[in-house]
Amino acid sequence: EYIGFNSAWGYWLAGILGNVATIMLLFSTLGYFFPIFKGGNNVASIVGASLLLWTLHFLILFGIREASIMNVIATIGKLVPIVLFIVVMVTAFRWDTFTHDFWGEGTISLSAILGQVKNTMLVTLWVFIGVEGAVVLSGRAKNSRDVGKATVLGLILVMSIYILISVLSMGAMTRGELSVLETPSMGHVLEHVVGPWGAVAINIGLVASLVGTLI
């Protein structure tokens, strides 16, 4: 019982902190369109976040069907910009930009590589949050093997998208330029290639994705 108690409270606390991070990123993204929310951690963002959470709360109270429709819209809204980004980056990819200063400056040491891996672990973990979704609905599966297949497929799909976005971006902008981009960096990369509408498309997709996460 003690282990179960800690597990439940740990999950609850992790959920709260995750929602706080999600809401901050959401209103920071909205700051691109409405400067009053810039940063995502000011009074306007707090008021907006409260209104949004209560709106989603009442939406779910109306019924699971309405929430499911909203979730489908959010899923489509975030997939379209991602696919658009990958397609545009493939056409704009430049091999000379990608290979420029490929190994960095100075000598390469194992400790430096381990440090880079350590610094990216938290971001990598965040990327794969939700990959266990098939297990949550495993009780409704007609065949238990489908759960494992769905989990592995989801993991491979997310990993492939993440790798494509990361690698293709380095073929459009230099590492120095990428390192100073503000969040969301995907929007700035696409804006660099196609113009202002690229950032608008990515930011709209990110807003849809974050709202879907809160549902």
Comma- or semicolon-separated keywords:
single chain; 215 residues; mainly alpha; 2 domains; 10 helices; 77% helix; transmembrane; transmembrane helix
Q: What does this 3D model show about the protein?
A:
- By secondary structure, the chain is mainly α.
- The chain has two domains: 1-93 and 196-215, no CATH class; 96-171, no CATH class.
- The protein contains ten helices and no strands.
- The chain has helices at 2-30, 43-62, 64-92, 95-99, 110-127, 133-136, 144-169, 175-179, 185-194, 196-214.
- Helix 1 packs antiparallel against helix 10 (196-214).
- The longest helix is centred in the N-terminal third of the chain and has 29 residues, at 2-30.
- The model has no long low-confidence stretch (mean pLDDT 83).
Radius of gyration: 20 Å
Span from first to last CA?
Answer: 30 Å
Helicity, as a percent range: over 70%
- Summarize model confidence as the mean pLDDT: 83
Please, how many helices?
A: 10
Structural class: mainly alpha
Largest sheet, strands/sense/barrel: none
Strand and helix map with partners:
Layout: H1 2-30, H2 43-62, H3 64-92, H4 95-99, H5 110-127, H6 133-136, H7 144-169, H8 175-179, H9 185-194, H10 196-214
Helix pairs in contact: 1-10, 2-3, 3-7, 3-9, 3-10, 9-10
Brief characterization of the structure:
With 215 residues, this protein is mainly α. It has helices at 2-30, 43-62, 64-92, 95-99, 110-127, 133-136, 144-169, 175-179, 185-194, 196-214. The chain has ten helices and no strands.
